[in-house]
Amino acid sequence: MTPPVSRDTIEEIVCANDFLSFFIVREFFEMATIKDVANRAGVSPTTVSHIINKTRHVSDELTSRVMAAIEDLDYRPYGLARSLRRRQSRTVGVLVPDNTNPYFAEVARLLEDRFFDQGYNVIICNTEQNPQKELAYLQLLIDKAVEGAIFVSTGNDPEAIEMLRRQRMACVLVDRDIPDLPLDRVVTDNQKGAEVATDYLLGQGHRRILCIAGPQGIASTEDRLRGYQRAMERADLPQLISHGDFRIQSGLQKFLDQCDTGDLPSAVFASNDLMALGVLHGAAKRGMRVPHDLSVIGFDDIHLAEYAVPALTTLRQEKSQIVEAATTLLLERIASLHRHDHTPEIQADLPSQSPVHHRVLAPTLIIRESSGPASQREHDYL
Protein backbone atom coordinates (compact mmCIF):
# COMPACT_ATOMS: atom_id res chain seq x y z
CA MET A 1 0.00 0.00 0.00
CA THR A 2 1.29 3.42 -0.94
CA PRO A 3 2.23 5.42 2.19
CA PRO A 4 0.17 8.58 2.70
CA VAL A 5 2.31 11.52 1.69
CA SER A 6 1.59 14.83 0.03
CA ARG A 7 3.14 15.90 -3.24
CA ASP A 8 4.61 18.94 -1.49
CA THR A 9 6.49 16.54 0.79
CA ILE A 10 7.74 14.57 -2.19
CA GLU A 11 8.95 17.74 -3.85
CA GLU A 12 10.80 18.73 -0.67
CA ILE A 13 12.53 15.33 -0.69
CA VAL A 14 13.58 15.80 -4.29
CA CYS A 15 14.87 19.34 -3.79
CA ALA A 16 16.79 18.32 -0.68
CA ASN A 17 18.62 15.49 -2.45
CA ASP A 18 19.39 15.01 -6.11
CA PHE A 19 18.25 13.93 -9.54
CA LEU A 20 18.32 10.25 -8.52
CA SER A 21 15.90 10.99 -5.69
CA PHE A 22 13.37 12.13 -8.26
CA PHE A 23 13.23 8.69 -9.81
CA ILE A 24 13.36 6.80 -6.50
CA VAL A 25 10.51 8.83 -5.03
CA ARG A 26 8.52 8.66 -8.26
CA GLU A 27 8.64 4.86 -8.34
CA PHE A 28 8.06 4.36 -4.61
CA PHE A 29 5.02 6.60 -4.46
CA GLU A 30 3.60 5.50 -7.85
CA MET A 31 3.74 9.00 -9.27
CA ALA A 32 2.52 9.51 -12.83
CA THR A 33 5.20 9.89 -15.48
CA ILE A 34 5.26 11.69 -18.79
CA LYS A 35 4.81 8.30 -20.45
CA ASP A 36 1.64 7.70 -18.43
CA VAL A 37 0.29 11.03 -19.65
CA ALA A 38 1.21 10.18 -23.25
CA ASN A 39 -0.51 6.80 -23.05
CA ARG A 40 -3.66 8.30 -21.52
CA ALA A 41 -3.84 11.04 -24.19
CA GLY A 42 -2.87 8.73 -27.05
CA VAL A 43 0.14 10.79 -28.09
CA SER A 44 3.90 10.45 -27.89
CA PRO A 45 5.93 11.56 -24.84
CA THR A 46 7.63 14.07 -27.13
CA THR A 47 4.30 15.73 -27.83
CA VAL A 48 3.56 15.93 -24.11
CA SER A 49 6.97 17.50 -23.53
CA HIS A 50 6.38 20.13 -26.24
CA ILE A 51 3.02 21.06 -24.73
CA ILE A 52 4.39 21.32 -21.19
CA ASN A 53 7.50 23.27 -22.17
CA LYS A 54 5.85 25.26 -25.00
CA THR A 55 8.72 24.37 -27.32
CA ARG A 56 6.64 23.63 -30.42
CA HIS A 57 3.16 24.42 -31.68
CA VAL A 58 0.70 21.59 -31.06
CA SER A 59 -2.91 21.57 -32.23
CA ASP A 60 -5.62 22.65 -29.82
CA GLU A 61 -7.23 19.21 -29.99
CA LEU A 62 -4.05 17.38 -28.91
CA THR A 63 -3.30 20.02 -26.30
CA SER A 64 -6.75 19.55 -24.77
CA ARG A 65 -6.28 15.78 -24.60
CA VAL A 66 -2.87 16.09 -22.97
CA MET A 67 -4.06 18.66 -20.45
CA ALA A 68 -7.02 16.44 -19.54
CA ALA A 69 -4.67 13.49 -19.03
CA ILE A 70 -2.40 15.60 -16.85
CA GLU A 71 -5.37 16.59 -14.67
CA ASP A 72 -6.75 13.02 -14.49
CA LEU A 73 -3.38 11.57 -13.45
CA ASP A 74 -2.47 14.51 -11.21
CA TYR A 75 0.81 14.72 -13.10
CA ARG A 76 3.26 17.44 -12.11
CA PRO A 77 6.54 17.84 -13.97
CA TYR A 78 9.37 18.43 -11.53
CA GLY A 79 11.41 21.52 -12.11
CA LEU A 80 14.54 19.96 -10.62
CA ALA A 81 14.52 17.06 -13.04
CA ARG A 82 13.98 19.39 -16.00
CA SER A 83 16.67 21.77 -14.86
CA LEU A 84 19.22 18.99 -14.40
CA ARG A 85 18.51 17.64 -17.88
CA ARG A 86 19.17 21.13 -19.21
CA ARG A 87 22.22 21.55 -16.93
CA GLN A 88 20.58 24.49 -15.22
CA SER A 89 20.66 23.10 -11.70
CA ARG A 90 21.63 26.47 -10.17
CA THR A 91 24.35 24.56 -8.32
CA VAL A 92 28.12 24.90 -8.42
CA GLY A 93 30.89 22.90 -6.79
CA VAL A 94 33.91 24.14 -4.85
CA LEU A 95 36.82 21.71 -4.46
CA VAL A 96 39.46 22.58 -1.87
CA PRO A 97 42.47 20.47 -0.85
CA ASP A 98 42.19 20.96 2.93
CA ASN A 99 39.21 22.53 4.68
CA THR A 100 41.08 22.56 7.99
CA ASN A 101 43.49 25.09 6.47
CA PRO A 102 42.00 28.48 7.43
CA TYR A 103 42.99 30.00 4.09
CA PHE A 104 40.87 27.55 2.10
CA ALA A 105 38.09 27.70 4.68
CA GLU A 106 37.97 31.48 4.36
CA VAL A 107 38.00 31.34 0.56
CA ALA A 108 35.26 28.68 0.51
CA ARG A 109 33.08 30.78 2.81
CA LEU A 110 33.49 33.86 0.59
CA LEU A 111 32.70 31.79 -2.50
CA GLU A 112 29.58 30.36 -0.89
CA ASP A 113 28.35 33.84 0.06
CA ARG A 114 29.03 35.21 -3.40
CA PHE A 115 27.27 32.39 -5.26
CA PHE A 116 24.35 32.46 -2.82
CA ASP A 117 23.86 36.13 -3.63
CA GLN A 118 23.65 35.11 -7.30
CA GLY A 119 21.00 32.47 -6.59
CA TYR A 120 23.27 29.41 -6.66
CA ASN A 121 23.59 26.53 -4.23
CA VAL A 122 27.14 25.41 -3.43
CA ILE A 123 28.54 21.91 -2.87
CA ILE A 124 31.86 22.14 -1.03
CA CYS A 125 34.20 19.16 -1.44
CA ASN A 126 37.28 18.60 0.73
CA THR A 127 39.79 16.47 -1.18
CA GLU A 128 42.31 16.22 1.69
CA GLN A 129 45.21 16.48 -0.78
CA ASN A 130 44.21 13.02 -2.01
CA PRO A 131 44.14 12.61 -5.83
CA GLN A 132 41.73 9.65 -5.62
CA LYS A 133 39.33 11.60 -3.45
CA GLU A 134 39.66 14.50 -5.86
CA LEU A 135 38.65 12.23 -8.75
CA ALA A 136 35.70 10.88 -6.78
CA TYR A 137 34.45 14.38 -6.00
CA LEU A 138 34.86 15.52 -9.59
CA GLN A 139 32.74 12.57 -10.69
CA LEU A 140 30.19 13.40 -7.99
CA LEU A 141 29.85 16.96 -9.26
CA ILE A 142 29.43 15.70 -12.81
CA ASP A 143 26.78 13.21 -11.66
CA LYS A 144 25.01 15.97 -9.74
CA ALA A 145 24.90 17.99 -12.98
CA VAL A 146 26.42 21.08 -11.38
CA GLU A 147 26.71 23.98 -13.78
CA GLY A 148 30.29 24.78 -12.88
CA ALA A 149 33.08 24.37 -10.36
CA ILE A 150 35.82 26.32 -8.62
CA PHE A 151 38.77 23.95 -8.49
CA VAL A 152 41.82 24.12 -6.19
CA SER A 153 43.81 21.07 -7.28
CA THR A 154 45.76 18.64 -5.12
CA GLY A 155 48.51 18.79 -7.77
CA ASN A 156 48.99 17.93 -11.41
CA ASP A 157 47.16 14.61 -11.24
CA PRO A 158 46.86 13.35 -14.85
CA GLU A 159 43.54 11.54 -14.26
CA ALA A 160 41.89 14.65 -12.83
CA ILE A 161 43.25 16.74 -15.71
CA GLU A 162 41.91 14.27 -18.27
CA MET A 163 38.51 14.22 -16.57
CA LEU A 164 38.36 18.01 -16.71
CA ARG A 165 39.28 17.95 -20.40
CA ARG A 166 36.43 15.56 -21.21
CA GLN A 167 33.65 17.46 -19.47
CA ARG A 168 31.68 20.44 -20.68
CA MET A 169 31.21 21.65 -17.09
CA ALA A 170 32.42 25.22 -16.66
CA CYS A 171 35.45 25.34 -14.40
CA VAL A 172 37.81 27.96 -12.97
CA LEU A 173 41.14 27.06 -11.40
CA VAL A 174 42.01 28.99 -8.24
CA ASP A 175 45.25 29.30 -6.25
CA ARG A 176 47.08 26.39 -7.92
CA ASP A 177 47.72 26.56 -11.62
CA ILE A 178 47.71 23.51 -13.91
CA PRO A 179 49.86 24.23 -16.98
CA ASP A 180 48.44 23.51 -20.43
CA LEU A 181 44.89 22.96 -19.18
CA PRO A 182 42.63 25.30 -21.20
CA LEU A 183 40.58 26.63 -18.30
CA ASP A 184 40.10 30.06 -16.78
CA ARG A 185 42.24 30.58 -13.72
CA VAL A 186 42.76 33.06 -10.88
CA VAL A 187 46.11 32.81 -9.11
CA THR A 188 48.42 34.85 -6.92
CA ASP A 189 51.86 35.89 -8.15
CA ASN A 190 53.49 33.45 -5.74
CA GLN A 191 57.01 33.80 -7.07
CA LYS A 192 56.99 37.57 -6.81
CA GLY A 193 55.52 37.41 -3.31
CA ALA A 194 58.24 35.04 -2.12
CA GLU A 195 60.90 37.27 -3.64
CA VAL A 196 59.48 40.30 -1.85
CA ALA A 197 59.45 38.45 1.47
CA THR A 198 63.01 37.17 1.09
CA ASP A 199 64.31 40.55 -0.10
CA TYR A 200 62.69 42.17 2.95
CA LEU A 201 64.53 39.76 5.27
CA LEU A 202 67.79 40.35 3.42
CA GLY A 203 67.23 44.08 3.81
CA GLN A 204 66.91 43.53 7.56
CA GLY A 205 70.39 42.04 7.62
CA HIS A 206 69.46 38.35 7.66
CA ARG A 207 71.76 35.99 5.80
CA ARG A 208 70.82 32.49 7.00
CA ILE A 209 67.21 32.30 5.88
CA LEU A 210 65.39 28.97 6.05
CA CYS A 211 62.64 28.39 3.51
CA ILE A 212 60.02 25.86 4.59
CA ALA A 213 58.32 25.11 1.29
CA GLY A 214 55.10 23.23 0.70
CA PRO A 215 54.65 19.76 -0.81
CA GLN A 216 56.47 19.12 -4.06
CA GLY A 217 54.43 18.83 -7.26
CA ILE A 218 52.12 21.76 -6.45
CA ALA A 219 52.43 24.89 -8.57
CA SER A 220 52.20 27.36 -5.69
CA THR A 221 54.92 25.46 -3.81
CA GLU A 222 57.28 25.57 -6.76
CA ASP A 223 56.61 29.24 -7.47
CA ARG A 224 57.19 30.35 -3.87
CA LEU A 225 60.34 28.28 -3.63
CA ARG A 226 61.59 29.77 -6.90
CA GLY A 227 61.01 33.29 -5.57
CA TYR A 228 63.07 32.54 -2.46
CA GLN A 229 65.83 30.98 -4.56
CA ARG A 230 66.05 33.92 -6.92
CA ALA A 231 66.42 36.39 -4.06
CA MET A 232 69.10 34.26 -2.35
CA GLU A 233 70.98 33.78 -5.64
CA ARG A 234 71.07 37.53 -6.21
CA ALA A 235 72.49 37.95 -2.72
CA ASP A 236 74.99 35.12 -3.39
CA LEU A 237 73.99 33.35 -0.17
CA PRO A 238 73.54 29.66 0.67
CA GLN A 239 69.99 28.33 0.58
CA LEU A 240 68.38 26.42 3.43
CA ILE A 241 65.34 24.54 2.10
CA SER A 242 62.99 22.06 3.70
CA HIS A 243 59.60 20.77 2.48
CA GLY A 244 56.56 20.62 4.75
CA ASP A 245 52.94 19.79 3.97
CA PHE A 246 51.28 23.18 4.61
CA ARG A 247 50.11 22.03 8.06
CA ILE A 248 51.15 23.61 11.35
CA GLN A 249 52.83 20.45 12.66
CA SER A 250 55.16 20.26 9.68
CA GLY A 251 56.27 23.86 10.18
CA LEU A 252 57.13 23.03 13.78
CA GLN A 253 58.98 19.82 12.90
CA LYS A 254 60.93 21.21 9.96
CA PHE A 255 62.12 24.14 12.06
CA LEU A 256 63.18 21.87 14.93
CA ASP A 257 64.96 19.56 12.46
CA GLN A 258 66.96 22.52 11.15
CA CYS A 259 67.84 23.61 14.68
CA ASP A 260 69.04 20.08 15.46
CA THR A 261 71.65 20.39 12.70
CA GLY A 262 73.33 23.16 14.71
CA ASP A 263 72.99 25.57 11.78
CA LEU A 264 70.47 27.95 13.29
CA PRO A 265 68.71 30.30 10.87
CA SER A 266 68.17 33.90 11.84
CA ALA A 267 64.97 34.05 9.79
CA VAL A 268 62.36 31.70 8.34
CA PHE A 269 60.19 32.19 5.29
CA ALA A 270 57.36 29.65 5.46
CA SER A 271 55.27 28.97 2.36
CA ASN A 272 52.03 29.43 4.27
CA ASP A 273 50.84 30.91 7.55
CA LEU A 274 50.06 27.59 9.23
CA MET A 275 53.66 26.41 8.88
CA ALA A 276 54.84 29.84 10.05
CA LEU A 277 52.71 29.46 13.18
CA GLY A 278 54.40 26.10 13.74
CA VAL A 279 57.78 27.87 13.52
CA LEU A 280 56.67 30.38 16.17
CA HIS A 281 55.82 27.47 18.45
CA GLY A 282 59.15 25.82 17.72
CA ALA A 283 61.03 29.03 18.53
CA ALA A 284 59.28 29.21 21.90
CA LYS A 285 60.20 25.57 22.61
CA ARG A 286 63.85 26.36 21.91
CA GLY A 287 63.84 29.55 24.00
CA MET A 288 64.27 31.82 20.99
CA ARG A 289 62.70 35.26 21.11
CA VAL A 290 60.79 36.45 18.06
CA PRO A 291 61.82 38.74 16.42
CA HIS A 292 64.98 39.39 18.49
CA ASP A 293 66.52 35.96 17.85
CA LEU A 294 64.44 34.85 14.90
CA SER A 295 62.30 36.58 12.29
CA VAL A 296 59.36 34.67 10.79
CA ILE A 297 57.31 35.40 7.67
CA GLY A 298 54.34 33.42 6.37
CA PHE A 299 52.16 33.51 3.27
CA ASP A 300 48.33 33.92 3.00
CA ASP A 301 47.37 36.31 5.84
CA ILE A 302 44.75 34.07 7.42
CA HIS A 303 42.68 35.67 10.18
CA LEU A 304 44.77 33.94 12.84
CA ALA A 305 47.96 35.63 11.62
CA GLU A 306 47.03 38.99 13.11
CA TYR A 307 46.26 37.43 16.50
CA ALA A 308 49.36 35.25 16.85
CA VAL A 309 51.83 36.20 19.57
CA PRO A 310 53.78 37.91 18.19
CA ALA A 311 51.53 38.95 15.32
CA LEU A 312 52.72 37.28 12.12
CA THR A 313 54.38 39.13 9.25
CA THR A 314 53.01 37.61 6.06
CA LEU A 315 52.22 37.94 2.37
CA ARG A 316 48.54 38.74 2.07
CA GLN A 317 46.58 36.98 -0.65
CA GLU A 318 43.67 39.27 -1.44
CA LYS A 319 40.94 36.69 -0.84
CA SER A 320 38.03 38.98 -1.65
CA GLN A 321 39.61 39.90 -4.99
CA ILE A 322 40.36 36.27 -5.77
CA VAL A 323 36.76 35.26 -5.01
CA GLU A 324 35.28 38.14 -7.00
CA ALA A 325 37.41 37.35 -10.04
CA ALA A 326 36.75 33.60 -9.83
CA THR A 327 32.98 33.88 -9.42
CA THR A 328 32.74 36.44 -12.21
CA LEU A 329 34.67 34.19 -14.60
CA LEU A 330 32.66 31.10 -13.69
CA LEU A 331 29.29 32.84 -14.02
CA GLU A 332 30.34 34.28 -17.38
CA ARG A 333 31.40 30.82 -18.56
CA ILE A 334 28.11 29.28 -17.36
CA ALA A 335 26.12 32.00 -19.12
CA SER A 336 28.10 31.39 -22.30
CA LEU A 337 27.33 27.68 -22.19
CA HIS A 338 23.63 28.39 -21.73
CA ARG A 339 23.62 30.87 -24.60
CA HIS A 340 25.14 28.33 -26.94
CA ASP A 341 22.86 25.59 -25.59
CA HIS A 342 25.67 23.01 -25.59
CA THR A 343 25.05 19.33 -25.18
CA PRO A 344 27.82 17.42 -23.37
CA GLU A 345 30.98 17.87 -25.38
CA ILE A 346 34.70 17.69 -24.85
CA GLN A 347 35.94 20.47 -22.60
CA ALA A 348 38.93 21.10 -24.84
CA ASP A 349 36.56 22.42 -27.51
CA LEU A 350 35.14 25.12 -25.26
CA PRO A 351 38.00 27.67 -25.29
CA SER A 352 37.38 28.13 -28.99
CA GLN A 353 34.05 29.67 -28.02
CA SER A 354 35.78 32.39 -25.97
CA PRO A 355 39.36 33.03 -24.86
CA VAL A 356 40.74 31.53 -21.67
CA HIS A 357 41.30 34.14 -18.98
CA HIS A 358 44.35 34.12 -16.71
CA ARG A 359 44.09 36.55 -13.77
CA VAL A 360 47.24 37.03 -11.67
CA LEU A 361 46.88 39.04 -8.46
CA ALA A 362 49.81 40.57 -6.59
CA PRO A 363 50.21 39.68 -2.89
CA THR A 364 50.94 42.40 -0.33
CA LEU A 365 53.64 42.23 2.34
CA ILE A 366 52.04 42.87 5.74
CA ILE A 367 54.75 43.69 8.28
CA ARG A 368 53.82 42.84 11.86
CA GLU A 369 55.68 41.91 15.04
CA SER A 370 57.29 38.61 14.03
CA SER A 371 60.01 40.15 11.86
CA GLY A 372 62.75 42.68 12.43
CA PRO A 373 66.47 43.39 12.04
CA ALA A 374 68.97 40.58 12.36
CA SER A 375 70.44 40.21 15.84
CA GLN A 376 74.04 40.95 16.78
CA ARG A 377 74.62 37.20 16.80
CA GLU A 378 73.93 37.13 13.05
CA HIS A 379 76.40 39.95 12.45
CA ASP A 380 78.99 38.16 14.61
CA TYR A 381 78.43 35.01 12.54
CA LEU A 382 79.18 36.93 9.36
From TrEMBL:
<dbReference type="InterPro" id="IPR046335">
    <property type="entry name" value="LacI/GalR-like_sensor"/>
</dbReference>
<feature type="domain" description="HTH lacI-type">
    <location>
        <begin position="32"/>
        <end position="86"/>
    </location>
</feature>
<dbReference type="Pfam" id="PF13377">
    <property type="entry name" value="Peripla_BP_3"/>
</dbReference>
<dbReference type="Pfam" id="PF00356">
    <property type="entry name" value="LacI"/>
</dbReference>
<dbReference type="InterPro" id="IPR010982">
    <property type="entry name" value="Lambda_DNA-bd_dom_sf"/>
</dbReference>
<dbReference type="InterPro" id="IPR028082">
    <property type="entry name" value="Peripla_BP_I"/>
</dbReference>
<keyword id="KW-0805">Transcription regulation</keyword>
<keyword id="KW-0804">Transcription</keyword>
<keyword id="KW-0678">Repressor</keyword>
<dbReference type="GO" id="GO:0000976">
    <property type="term" value="F:transcription cis-regulatory region binding"/>
</dbReference>
<dbReference type="GO" id="GO:0003700">
    <property type="term" value="F:DNA-binding transcription factor activity"/>
</dbReference>
<dbReference type="InterPro" id="IPR000843">
    <property type="entry name" value="HTH_LacI"/>
</dbReference>
<keyword id="KW-0238">DNA-binding</keyword>
<protein>
    <recommendedName>
        <fullName>HTH lacI-type domain-containing protein</fullName>
    </recommendedName>
</protein>
